[in-house]
Amino acid sequence: MNDLAPFREKIDQLDDQLVKLLNERAEVALQIGAMKEKAGLPVYAPEREEMLLRRIEKKNAGPLRHESLRAIYREIMSASLSLEKDLKVVCAGGRGGMAHLAALSKFGSSLQYVFREQVRDVFLRVETGEADCGVVLLKSAERGIEKATMECFAESKAVILAEIRLGEGEKKDRFFVIGKGPCRPSGNDRSLVLVRIKKLLDLHSHAVEPFLRRSISLSEVESIFLSGEDGECLCLLEPEGCESVLLSSALLEELKERCLEVRVLGSFPKLGAAGP
């Protein structure tokens, strides 16, 4: 056991340095928070968060795995956010439910979590400012697309800020963080576009083809039928790139001419994607 003494002493010294550096980092975060408040900027910046995590991964020479470093920094950033503001996150379902677990994996344990059984109430709390962010399930690995969430996106002014995937292997549930303000580009992003069309047969010609003609790749295409709307469908398209790219391509104008309704739900950083 005496052979361990010098190593334990070294660990103690490193821990002392870490505590000092973490508090210095927290002081800088407080200054940033004050500047954001003065400028009227949102405290939570998902694009900055993902860019920071990508940078940490590039700097990582091991032996810690990327996943381990991300988990450590998730809690560091969570603690910093809680210092900047008493950030409130509303989750669909109860404490310990899947949305709560997804939120914890994204925001860490230092924030304030509240819960609402109905997904519609999550959107409402975000729209009214009662919560800073919300976490909702959009696609279940077992059940597929969540109709209630799709319909809320069609009616709400809340926008997508970030994506969360929860589960093992390839089949994972897809959760999204919603808020009031748009997410700024991170350099490697995707967007979600919601369109309403008269019938499902129109999906390719009215909604998909304008993307393909512009060589904009679509990662996902989902659709649901609207109750009592004579065959009308809500379709969800997931193009590569941020909202500003879509707006600059005249794509949205064409979609609006072809579809009954078009709404960009937001742009978000690709999970674990390397930056430019």
Detail the topology: elements first, then pairings:
Layout lengths: L4 H35 L6 H14 L6 H19 L3 E5 L5 H10 L4 E5 L2 H9 L5 E8 L3 E2 L1 H9 L3 E8 L6 E7 L9 E9 L5 H11 L4 E8 L7 E7 L3 H6 L2 H8 L2 E9 L7
Parallel strand pairs: 1-2, 1-3
Antiparallel strand pairs: 3-4, 3-6, 5-6, 7-9, 7-10, 8-9
Helix pairs in contact: 1-3, 2-3, 7-9
Can you describe this structure?
- This protein has 276 residues and is of the alpha+beta class.
- The chain folds into two domains: 42-179, 3-Layer(aba) Sandwich (D-Maltodextrin-Binding Protein, domain 2), CATH 3.40.190.10; 189-268, 2-Layer Sandwich (Alpha-Beta Plaits).
- 44% of the residues lie in helices and 25% in strands.
- It has helices at residues 5-39, 46-59, 66-84, 98-107, 119-127, 147-155, 203-213, 243-248, 251-258; strands at 88-92, 112-116, 133-140, 144-145, 159-166, 173-179, 189-197, 218-225, 233-239, 261-269.
- Strands 1, 2, 3, 4, 5 and 6 form a six-stranded mixed sheet that branches. A four-stranded antiparallel sheet has the order 8-9-7-10, sandwiched between helices.
- The longest helix is centred in the first third of the chain and has 35 residues, at 5-39.
- The model has no long low-confidence stretch (mean pLDDT 88).
